[in-house]
Amino acid sequence: MPATPPSKARTKAPSPASQRTISLSLNGTATVIAVTDPNQPLLYVLRNQLGLTGAKFGCGKGQCGACTILIDNEPARACQTPIAAVADKRVTTIEGLGSVKAPHPVQAAFIAEQAAQCGYCATGMVMSSVALLARIPKPSLDEAKRALSGNLCRCGTHQRILRAVMRASGSAQP
Ligand code: FES
Ligand code: FES
Fold first, then answer.
1. Two domains, one topology: 6-96 and 105-169
2. By alpha-carbon position, which residue is closest to atom 3 of ligand 1?
3. Is the minimum distance from the CB of 58 to ligand 1 under 6 angstroms?
4. How far, in Å, from the CA of 58 to the mean position of ligand 1?
5. Res 130 pLDDT > 80
6. Which ligand is nearest to the CA of 156?
7. What kind of architecture, by CATH, is found in domain 105-169?
8. pTM (two decimals)
9. How far apart are CA 55 and CA 101, in angstroms?
């Protein structure tokens, strides 16, 4: 995919004087973000500075997976990723997957299986599932369980989530 020309790059700039800029591809768009603290978690920048609130703050300690996003197509914890670490990387959030009218196949499978109760974990579950299916298009149930083992669901919808992953892969559902 050709790089977005500089004229189309979007810039998000806070006002303070001591700032630096981070350039990255965010959901397929060349983006320049002005930051005052390069160690600020990516999750905070996404949610508070860019208005991308799909990734959730759960534990803030890298333990629940609610903040999962993709960096160069690999799942990562946005709460544990300093904004400086995504310079020149490709970051994908759930906002970059699909839309209400045209959901990503994994999102469509989650809807079909009603794989959410409160839904707080759903973003992270979907992002981890997308990464899994990109790596292994037809995972076994055990592979799906392993891929999602770092994503916690306090509502206990794991069975439905696994059915959604298998549905999205076109495999028989558990
Ligand atoms: S909020 Fe990032 S892993 Fe829990
Ligand atoms: S559906 Fe509530 S935490 Fe998973």
1. no
2. 62
3. yes
4. 5
5. yes
6. 2
7. Orthogonal Bundle (1.10)
8. 0.89
9. 20
Q: What is the DSSP string of 45-109?
A: IIIIIS---SS--SSSSSSS-TTEEEETTEEEEGGGSBGGGGTT-EEE-GGGT--SSS--HHHHH
Average pLDDT over residues 100-124: 96
Q: How far is the CA of 110 from the centre of ligand 1 (A)?
A: 21
Ligand number nearest CA of 59 is 1
Q: What is the pLDDT of residues 26-81, one digit of tens each?
A: 999 999 999 999 999 999 999 999 999 999 999 999 999 999 999 999 999 999 99
Cα 119 to middle of ligand 1, angstroms: 15
Distance CA(63)–CA(161), nearest Å, equals 19
Q: Give the pLDDT band of residue 133 (cuts 50, 70, 90).
A: very high
Q: Where are the domains of the chain?
A: 6-96, 105-169
